[in-house]
């Protein structure tokens, strides 16, 4: 359960920034609780927000006084990382418009490009998209007709 | 008489149904987002035309298989297929990364079989007295049980307790998003329609565990898991001695799973986490939980499969379902004309005992089915090119999280939480405390508010929270779990100078 990231020498600036952001989130949550009508709705989130603020402040003090080692930066392509999340989000946003199958196939093909590190060959260029289409259609059939899940249909077509 | 029920359970049709049910459940449970509840719910209409005992055997087999199936994606993709396999990721995935994924799958299978058998044994022999345990638990006990579950953070956050607490508090806060269950106030949505349905636990689980793995997978050309140079089969010759070494862990975790399974609403996720915490607390010198220790996989898997038998105890004896799939099985029982209650074992003993023996059968069949499916799942994940593995898993996370509530909002939340989880993990705030908070938040809040209301009405708040014997026992266990590692460290530090 510990963080995957290995540690390096130097102040944990990332941890400090995360703690400050969490203090802000806790403060926003505290403010939000002032608008609830029932006291039963207030007590738990307010307690938790205070716990979040206190634990984050505790870490800030600890990080300043004890200087724990910083988490190491990751290697690898940031562009590919951002592209993965963007493709997934855009495909889900497009789902109500172009339907589940179309958005699924487009997302699958885009993600093949994002995840492809090996050199392309004719065989891969033909087989990978076909496998992708088969997986999307296969899962669509399983969920739509086997498990009776009403997958989104497109508004445009 | 019992031999007669056993013979009924072992008819060719029932054996086939148990085998098919276990296989179907295992495959469904291995897909992230498809839970045991969904597996049982989807297949329950098939049973309506069957003989009652056969129908129940099929449902029990699907349930058992689905709970175990969650271990595959937990071990191979670091994503619990079902919430009850969260603890399996802690050590299962590190094992897989070191090339021991097939050993982890085999150990998980053996643990699940033993846990399932222990749960079924308690169901067969001690149902009426154990169901009283469920009745003895009130709101305040559930609150303390949730706090006990949260104490796992302390045990697992070595050197970064503050970060663990920050993550858990964030998770608890996320569990409050949406319409409040008790008073229907709209909380922490900031006017967004996407957030109004709250954060679905399984979607959050998939997002926080799976999306960061995918983000890191696409970033580099490195292989997902280490490929072994030689085929080593099921590795039973290594797994069986590990199981023998962990025999106390197996029994303890199975009993924890049975008892937690009896408590309505707690379920396999709480059982797995509590068993993992206890296994870690009782770790021997040199055992490093969280870094690929088979004991962690054994604890979680034996506990979550023991909840199957445990959850059926109050379902059959009291008509109170212990876990969500039990609620569906209860519905199936009613459709079949079986009336649950204390007299069930006498009035309709034939059906019930055949069902329980069928559960034993299904659990035993999980061994060959689980080992075979596990071996092929491992081989597939290890050998699949990254350019196909990433989109396949990403697509499964989307369809899996959508299918839970047929909601596009859940998918958006899943992906967003995953991205946030990846960023937080870079700053040392791991996903597990956040997930723990999200899962245990509703249990803690409901118990806390109800106990608060009762305590306020009776004018004895302190007595309500600290004056009940079961509560006190749970509080003591929690304190023990929290402070024992500190105490052990102090004792070790004192002994060190003497040793020198």
Can you give a write-up of this model?
The complex is a heterodimer of chains A (157) and B (500). Chain A is mainly α and 157 residues long. Chain A is built from 5 helices and 2 strands. Chain A is flat. In chain A, helix 1 (13-33) packs antiparallel against helix 2. Chain B has helices at 2-9, 12-30, 36-43, 52-77, 86-97, 101-125, 127-136, 139-150, 152-156, 161-175, 201-219, 236-245, 247-262, 267-281, 294-317, 324-335, 344-347, 349-383, 386-405, 408-426, 431-458, 461-466, 469-499, and strands spanning 178-179, 186-187. Chain B has a two-stranded antiparallel ribbon. The radius of gyration of chain B is 22 Å and the shape is globular. Chain B starts with a helix and ends with a helix. Chains A and B meet through helix 1, helix 2, helix 3, helix 4 and helix 5 of A and helix 10, helix 11, helix 19, helix 20 and helix 21 of B.
Q: What percent of residues of chain B adopt helix (DSSP H or I)?
A: over 70%
Shape by Cα distribution of chain B: globular
Strand order in the sheet with the most strands of chain B: 1-2
**Tally of DSSP β-strands of chain A:** 2
Number of helices of chain A: 5
Based on secondary structure, the structural category of chain A is mainly alpha
Task: Work out the number of β strands of chain B.
Answer: 2
Q: Whole-Å distance between the termini of chain A?
A: 45 Å
Order of helices and strands of chain B: HHHHHHHHHHEEHHHHHHHHHHHHH
Strand content of chain B: under 5%
User: Level of helix content of chain A?
Assistant: over 70%
Cα(first) to Cα(last) distance of chain B is 66 Å
What's the quaternary structure here?
Answer: heterodimer
Radius of gyration of chain B: 22 Å
Query: What is the CA-atom radius of gyration of chain A, in angstroms?
Result: 23 Å
